[in-house]
Amino acid sequence: MTPLQKPNAPSAAAGTPQVKRGANTARPQTNEERRRAQRVLLRMPVLIHLPGKANPISGFTHTVSATGAMVILAEGLATGTKLSIENPKTQKKVEAHVVRPPQMNPEGSLVPIEFNAPSPQFWNIFFPPTTN
């Protein structure tokens, strides 16, 4: 038993980061606390370029971060799909890939993409400071 655990309390999964609540208690981190980068709600147009396709796919962002975005497209893309995302306002492009299957939403498919390397300047916005 670690000093942060209460007697007879269930222990957290091995390797799960803990957040200290008080002198004798801890809780597992929330999804928001585990994120590598802070997400920001931002609706802006994007172009998705797929290898071998002449015309890009138009879409909009739902949320963005320094490491990727949730993008709204008319049709979903398969997990692992490699692509380039373009910010039409700045004409910058970043290599990325789809990280999970898309989810349907009233506006279309929510496609989670991750940049191959963090690119916080890609969105041309300032991210709020982290609160950790």
Order of helices and strands: EEHEEEEEEEE
Our estimate of the beta-strand percent is 35-45%
Structural class: mainly beta
Any idea what the radius of gyration is?
Answer: 19 Å
The quaternary state of the protein chains shown equals single chain
Give the count of helical stretches: 1
Contiguous runs where pLDDT drops below 50 for at least 5 residues? 1-13
The largest pleated sheet is described as:
6 strands, antiparallel, barrel
Number of strands: 10
Distance N to C terminus:
26 Å
Average of the residue pLDDT scores: 81
Question: What gross morphology would you assign?
Answer: globular
Query: What share of residues is helical?
Result: under 10%
Strand order of the largest sheet: 4-5-6-10-8-7
Structure, explained:
- This protein has a 6-stranded antiparallel beta barrel.
- It has 132 residues and is mainly beta.
- Helices cover 3% and strands 39% of the residues.
- It has one helix at 31-34, and strands at 18-20, 26-28, 40-41, 45-49, 57-65, 68-73, 82-87, 92-98, 103-105, 108-115.
- Strand 5 (57-65) and strand 6 (68-73) form a beta hairpin.
Secondary-structure topology with pairs:
Layout: E1 18-20, E2 26-28, H1 31-34, E3 40-41, E4 45-49, E5 57-65, E6 68-73, E7 82-87, E8 92-98, E9 103-105, E10 108-115
